[in-house]
């Protein structure tokens, strides 16, 4: 997805080669050694990761640390020929991007980009850093941009991961997020809110800077929203029909 966005937005003409390398490397490394339980669980369960990182983006800090442990191995060091000063800057930039994928910071990062997008300046380092943060965020949660037949199996995997976490939280007496609770969530309800209130607003903001993403990325998101809203209507109708059937059966029982 990152490679696609770089080409679609023609970033090879707007960013440095170093920036492109930072974007690609951060994208590859951004979820390394993910345990399948989110930051909220880590913090509430007081896991080793939460304790190590003082409850501050424990997972993202861990993904970063693992990335640089791998890069420190001579056979894996893709930056071996980079001078130490440049490596410091690359390392800092990759850390910034991976830490930006913590969804707890979503509002803060998107707001910052919204303030810059109308007068965006590719020569302004702060602007470019903010753009790179938004790009990795887009790629990180871009599943619904893909065609339904590609995206949907991943939604099933994601929900299974959520349900495993909420089952564990219940068994450990920890708080459970409603969007992860198998008793409260269906695939359509899980996706509709996320697409409408997180994905579309973020991609539409990026679209102000790169109008060419509308057809290839934003329109599929709108189609996906419509698809899940249709599925929800079908689910609701079936639930309603089942409810009426149950009521009629109980009324029939009373008449006898």
TrEMBL record:
Catalysed conversion reaction: 3',5'-cyclic GMP + H2O = GMP + H(+)
The protein's UniProt keywords, in alphabetical order, are: cGMP, Hydrolase, Metal-binding
Enzyme Commission number(s) of this protein? 3.1.4.35
UniProt: Zn(2+) 1 binding residues: 30-31, 140
Domain (PDEase): give its ranges: 1-235
Q: Give the GO terms filed under biological process for this record.
A: signal transduction
Quote the PROSITE patterns the UniProt record gives: PDEASE_I_1 (PS00126), PDEASE_I_2 (PS51845)
Tell me yes or no: is Hydrolase among this UniProt entry's keywords.
yes
| Positions that bind Zn(2+) 2 | 31
Q: Its pathway?
A: Purine metabolism; 3',5'-cyclic GMP degradation; GMP from 3',5'-cyclic GMP: step 1/1
Q: Which GO terms describe its molecular function?
A: 3',5'-cyclic-GMP phosphodiesterase activity; metal ion binding
Q: Which PANTHER family match?
A: CYCLIC NUCLEOTIDE PHOSPHODIESTERASE
| Similarity section | Belongs to the cyclic nucleotide phosphodiesterase family. PDE9 subfamily.
Role, per record: Specifically hydrolyzes the second messenger cGMP, which is a key regulator of many important physiological processes. Highly specific: compared to other members of the cyclic nucleotide phosphodiesterase family, has the highest affinity and selectivity for cGMP. Specifically regulates natriuretic-peptide-dependent cGMP signaling in heart, acting as a regulator of cardiac hypertrophy in myocytes and muscle. Does not regulate nitric oxide-dependent cGMP in heart.
Q: What is this protein called?
A: High affinity cGMP-specific 3',5'-cyclic phosphodiesterase 9A
Whose protein is this, by species? Pygocentrus nattereri
């Amino acid at each position: 997805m990152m490679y696609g966005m770089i080409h679609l937005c023609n970033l090879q003409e707007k960013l440095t080669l170093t920036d492109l390398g930072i974007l690609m490397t951060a994208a590859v490394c951004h979820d390394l050694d993910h345990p399948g339980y989110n930051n909220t669980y880590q913090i509430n369960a007081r896991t080793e990761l939460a304790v190590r990182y003082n409850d501050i983006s424990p997972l993202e800090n861990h993904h970063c640390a693992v990335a640089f442990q791998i890069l420190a191995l001579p056979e894996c060091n893709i930056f071996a020929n980079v001078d130490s000063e440049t490596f410091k800057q690359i390392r800092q930039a990759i850390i910034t991007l991976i830490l930006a994928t913590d969804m707890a910071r979503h509002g803060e990062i998107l707001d910052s980009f919204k303030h810059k997008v109308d007068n965006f300046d590719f020569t302004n380092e702060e602007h470019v850093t903010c753009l790179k943060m938004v790009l990795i965020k887009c790629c990180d949660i871009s599943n619904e941009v893909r065609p339904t037949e590609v995206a949907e199996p991943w939604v099933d995997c994601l929900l299974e991961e959520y349900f495993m976490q909420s089952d564990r939280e219940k068994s450990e007496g920890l708080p459970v997020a409603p969007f992860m609770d198998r008793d409260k969530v269906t695939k359509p309800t899980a996706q509709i809110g996320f697409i409408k209130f997180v994905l579309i607003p973020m991609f539409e903001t990026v679209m102000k800077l790169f109008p060419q993403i509308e057809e290839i990325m934003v329109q599929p998101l709108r189609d996906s929203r419509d698809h899940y809203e249709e599925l929800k209507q079908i689910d609701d109708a079936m639930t309603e029909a089942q409810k009426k059937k149950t009521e009629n059966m109980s009324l029939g029982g009373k008449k006898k």
